[in-house]
């Protein structure tokens, strides 16, 4: 089982769109996939038409009084399941703080699912917190969407440095440019130059396209409702890179 | 997952769905689940239903250019599947070795054994999928409506099967949908698998085997002649059912089962023929002997070839490769004998035998009620039991092999009689009664098979030598096999005394004698 996490300290950079589309593509490839919507806003749950509610809330999951298994819902797509968001996830930091070895708690919660799923996608809320740290410890590959600005790249460097300080397991990082506006010269310039210079950058870039915004209207991954669109094509390339980087075979 | 059967003049899909949705929730809606999926389906099993009896179902499904083999267990759980390479689908019937190597074959092989897999049903299937949606237009369950049209063993439309599958996490609402479906007129919970539904449409049942001994139900007071006609008709059914498979040479067991039916018929005629109308038994005795003799050479060679791998595995000095010319010789001989056998089974003589025998059995109208079949069975079983014990008691360490063969024949007669009149006795009591007899028969069978095969291998060696067609290594290896057979025969002979003592023991004989008490007949036998 490979664990992918879409992570960025900033919001609105395309984390959920990435998790939803890559999750869908992984399932379409025949992998058994679980997407955990960790964001209390529940955007991924909304896109899959699943109510953002977990019996017992985040407390029951973190404390282990309710198994993750029993909270999982099937999406409308074969092979793709979702662990929905819950509004109580806003307190996950506090709950983790009360748990033993909080930074490793998420990995421990996911361990029993290793025979059931080939790939898990963690869709993280925008923050830097105990929850983020637990996600970073659990993940095999961090997918970091970045808007092409100098500050974004600086944030990535801070993240890489932070991970470099981990003892033991460290996730691999695959950053990629997202929401690229080709009319902006700075976007084009940074997006063209950086990936060639840095090994932690994907060659794929996700453009800012209205069809991606349509996802919230259609309530489905763009890769499902518009599989021949440019957006779907780029997510396809990104999935190939991520899959190879994580060593997910089959 | 829940399955339903939609029978006869059932409501059309839109009506059905409206009824179901209305009963579950006003917010529940149905949506088309995509294109109708058409497939060609074949279910495979051995002629004697070995997979079905072991709780396995093997299906070959071809859909959109992709052919898959699916092996499911008793609860419909998928145990193994294989995708067949395009253009390399096995032509059924075939032996299990035609399946691609892998987990599916590994599960099927020990169950099917030497029997070929034959299509038991072929059907075209059209599956329409519907999705049940909640108030968020989220799929909570899927309903597959499968309409099958059979093309084999008969042309017929099977009742549609509905399969309701919950989406994970939506079990409760799916249960409510399932309950609502059951309230729709003419829909019922499916009682069997899709295979069983398809067979029922053709008027058949899984596991049915023509002429099965246990399928003959006799009443103790039935006139003996009528009972015998029933028994012999069942044997004729079994014989005829195995003819096409023998002629097509599908697997060795068709011939084996055909021979059993012939032997049982001959035994019944010999032992109980006097209970039939005058002249009937004597008219057919010679013809059934001809039929038995026709089948013997091919079966003998089959036995050799079936045991060939075991024989070569036991070689110590010689190498299996040394025996290749012998194997080729066996194959050539078998091919020649099989041609003779197939010609005989296609002959007018054989057709005349089966047609006139069936007509004669149908004409049996007992003039007298006595003897009743229970009395006939008791008298014959009792006599056969006595003769078997007496024959065995005469055997000493110095007795020739023929005396053991004679006892084997006596035991076979006894066993046939017990099986022939089986429905007159309680099955558990019958099983107990023949326990020691079976063990003795196994021992005598091992002894006699080794005796016959030793004689045959000498004859084969003589022929091969006369043909000057084999190297010395082959003859030496054959000699080693003959030696191995002699060892096996000595082992069986050593075992014999104990086996016979068990059979002849007072307890064993009392259990057999209990079958001959006419006051001890089971109530079910009279039903």
**What is the end-to-end distance of chain B?**
40 Å
Mean pLDDT of chain A: 91
Query: Could you list the spans of chain A in which at least 5 consecutive residues all have pLDDT below 50?
Result: none
The spatial strand order of the largest sheet of chain A comes to 3-4-2-5-1-6-7-8
In sequence order, what are the helices and strands of chain A, one letter per element? EHEHHHEEHHEHEHEHEHHHH
Describe the 3D structure.
The complex is a heterodimer of chains A (250) and B (527). With 250 residues, chain A is of the alpha/beta class. Chain A has helices at 15-28, 43-47, 57-63, 68-71, 92-98, 105-110, 130-138, 150-164, 185-197, 210-213, 215-218, 222-225, 230-246, and strands at residues 2-6, 33-37, 73-74, 80-83, 119-123, 141-146, 172-180, 201-207. Chain A has an eight-stranded mixed sheet with strand order 3-4-2-5-1-6-7-8, with helices on both faces. The longest helix of chain A is centred in the last third of the chain and has 17 residues, at 230-246. Chain A starts with a strand and ends with a helix. Chain B is an alpha+beta fold and 527 residues long. Chain B starts with a strand and ends with a helix. The chains are: A alpha/beta (250), B alpha+beta (527). Chains A and B meet through strand 3 of A and loops of B.
